[in-house]
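idk why but the lab printer keeps eating my pages so im just putting this in chat instead. protein + magnesium ion:
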Amino acid sequence: MKKIRIFFHSIEEAFKSVFRNASLSIASISCIAITLILVAVSVILSYNVNSFTSDIEKDVTIVAFLDKEVTQEQIDEIKTKITNLNNIASIEFQSKQQLIDEMKEENADLENILNQYTEETNPLQDTYLVKVENIETIGKTAEEIENIEGVSIVKYGEGMVEDLVNVFDVVKNITYIVVIGLVLVTAFLISNTIKITIQTRKRQIEIMRLVGASNSFIKIPFFFEGLLLGALGSIIPIIACCYGYMYLYERFNGQLFTPIIKLVNPDLIIFNIIFFVIAIGVVVGALGSYRAVRRYLKI
Amino acid sequence: MNLIELKNVYKQYSNGVTALCDVSIEISKGEFVFVIGKTASGKSTLIKLLYRQEKPSKGGVFVGGINVAKLKNRKVYKLRRKLGIVFQDYKLLPNLTVYENVAFALEIYGLRSDEVRQKVMKALEKVGLKEKFKSYPDQLSGGEQQRVSIARAIVNEPKILICDEPTGNLDPKTSLEIMEIINKINEEGTTVIMATHDKEIVNKYRKRVITIEKGILVSDKEKGGYFNEKD
Ligand SMILES: Nc1ncnc2c1ncn2[C@@H]1O[C@H](COP(=O)(O)OP(=O)(O)OP(=O)(O)O)[C@@H](O)[C@H]1O
Ligand SMILES: [Mg+2]
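predcted complex ->
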């Protein structure tokens, strides 16, 4: 019961302090808010980059053309060999006959020409369509497939795919670094602001120590104060970013410039964004205030 | 066992000043002890050792069974809860009322508000300031402010009351009033240690007097006073 009363007392003190030092609190809150807006933008960005890269990954296929004179036996053997490689997600056989049929369907003009070919004279080659698990090492996998006996050429849109994936990876990593940096800088700024509020309460803390307050009794209100500043600082970023993203999504019909780049549906990520923003805000605030008092109580 | 004991205590500040030199004192429960001496003789240093504002450089300081010299920073509050401390400058919080200033010392215990009210009013009654509980410190005279700080010191009924020149800022008449309150608290069983250089008070009350000169304990007399000393 006593512990509970002391706990509520700490929370009450934290609220009082936030309001009493209104101008400093507003400074801290704005500072946190700016960081959190950038955090939210980064989170939205990285969800989209992730979804886009996995979309591409789903589409990218290695086409392995088999030698013209392969036997059915060899075809089966090649399949086993490919399946045994690392990084293979799926494999599908497409015979030259199927290819011709497909082409006929797609283009009526071609049909007559293509009809001239018989099973033996078909100029096309049997192929395996292979999908990979990790697109970053697609080049290596393609090479391994090409080395299998009976495979003549391998195609997968070399270079372009890897470059694209690399660019997105760089974008993601920069985003992470920027977010971590911002979080640290903000925690530092918060701790300085709270230090100023401690200065003004120096006398109060001195007297608290004299009448027998433990360090944690003195510290906890400051800790809650940091939490509170973090939570208050996350309100505007959450509203701005969630509504902003929903608006953009509607405005661009869920795609960016071309239908290839699909935006992630806001409904799917909005709770994650809210969670991230609040969590980071609260952590930043608490870290900052903890740092501020810890220094101060070392007497 | 003695309530307070100093064993061969040395105190040298980091700037090299030796404020106390081989001081040994024993104080038992219920005593009233004046600590006197010229300015910079080491009175405040002695007091600060008792509530662990300073640590001794050498020697042992025991207060209420706690070895103050070995007390970790984190545990200092345990000692402070056994003590009431009164200063020359009152150390009141200007934005709190008299009542709140006294109740401030009870916040750490998480008491029910009716318990707090009862204890605070009892302490204010002892110092004769019950009617002014709603006033703010700047609306009170120096003597009244000192009463508030005494009320805060005794609100948790400590075994020991430590005073560093409690009458230092007050005129002779007010000083005597404050002394009356402190004496009464002592008569009710609280051990009192008071540093002062108020000759009139020391000579009037005829208590145990410890004299310090340049950090050295030069006399320790029952019913002592300023007899032949010039200052
Ligand atoms: N924190 C400190 N750091 C360095 N030296 C100090 C410190 N506090 C006190 N001193 C020195 O220690 C000596 C004793 O000081 P102390 O305050 O104990 O004297 P005092 O007897 O209380 O004097 P007064 O009657 O003026 O209050 C002085 O020379 C003082 O300058
Ligand atoms: Mg002094």
